[in-house]
Amino acid sequence: MAIEKKTTKTTAKKPAVKKTIAAKPVATKAAAKKTSGEKAVAAKTSVSQEKFYSMVSEAAYFSAQNDGNRKGAAEYWVEAEAAVRAKFNVK
Questions:
Q1: Global pTM?
Q2: CA 18 to chain centre
Q3: In the chain, where does DSSP find H-type helix?
Q4: Reduced to 3 states, what is the DSSP secondary structure of residue 88?
Q5: Longest Cα pair distance anywhere in the chain, in angstroms?
Q6: C-alpha to C-alpha distance for 68 and 61, rounded to whole angstroms
Q7: pLDDT under 70 in the chain at which residues?
């Protein structure tokens, strides 16, 4: 009869290491200097009339879809045209 030798493996516990999270530096935007009565105005990008028309068309379509077509098509068009004109210059 053979005798089996049983061994147990013991491992040394590693010391607990505390992880510290270094604070990431936060980038701050430099404030634009404004004189009294002046506002910072962003430059508008110029677009062609064809591009303007396609942007207005797309904006009106998605606005109507998101609203469930509750208003008339002309109302969506006028709102979309005003929004696109506010962002872009038309050549």
A1: 0.53
A2: 35
A3: 49-67, 73-87
A4: strand
A5: 103
A6: 11
A7: 1-2, 4-42
